[in-house]
Structures are given as structure tokens and as C-alpha cells.
Amino acid sequence: MKKIIAPIVITLLVLTILFFYIAALVVTSGQTTDFLSNAFLIVIMIIIVIIMATMIYVLFQRIKEIKEEDKDDISKY
């Protein structure tokens, strides 16, 4: 169980940082009236959301991998 806590904490930390970054971009896009600037900010937000979704997917894959891990990996070598 302890092995699962670290990936969850790190993922939540990074997701929180990315969420605040998106919030800052939303505030910035509300202050600009230029179409190109807003389009660029929206593209960056979409990329960040894709990164966030990928991190969640990788977290579930890692948890699955940890649960299926052999208890005595060193004996293989």
C-alpha cells in the first residue's frame, strides 16, 4: 500500500500546479481582446488538459503495475 501513495501524491501535486496554470491562462485570456492571442492561449490550455489526462491514465497504469508486481523480483536475477 505504501508504494501506491507516492505516485498518487506526485500526480496530485503536478495536477494542482497545472490546474493553477490553466486558471492563470483563463484570467489572461479574459484580459486580451486579440483573436490570435486568445487562440494561442486556448491551444496551450488544450495541451495542458491533454497532459493532465495522460498523467491520470499513467497513474492508473502504474497502480495496476504495482498491484501485479511479483513480491520477490530480486530472486529472478
State the main characteristics:
0% strand
Description:
- The protein is elongated.
- By secondary structure, the chain is an all-alpha fold.
- The model has no long low-confidence stretch (mean pLDDT 87).
- Helix 1 runs antiparallel to helix 2.
- The protein has one domain.
- Helix content is 83%, strand content 0%.
- The protein has two helices and no strands.
Task: Note the topology.
Layout: H1 2-31, H2 35-68
Helix pairs in contact: 1-2
Structural class category: mainly alpha
Radius of gyration: 19 Å
How would you sum up the major sheet? Answer: none
Cα separation of the termini: 25 Å
Global morphology: elongated
Q: Helix tally?
A: 2
Number of domains: 1
Mean pLDDT: 87
Number of strands: 0
How would you spell out the order of helices and strands? Answer: HH
Spans of 5+ residues with little confidence (pLDDT < 50)?
Answer: none
Q: Which percent range fits the helix content? A: over 70%
- The percent range for strand residues is under 5%
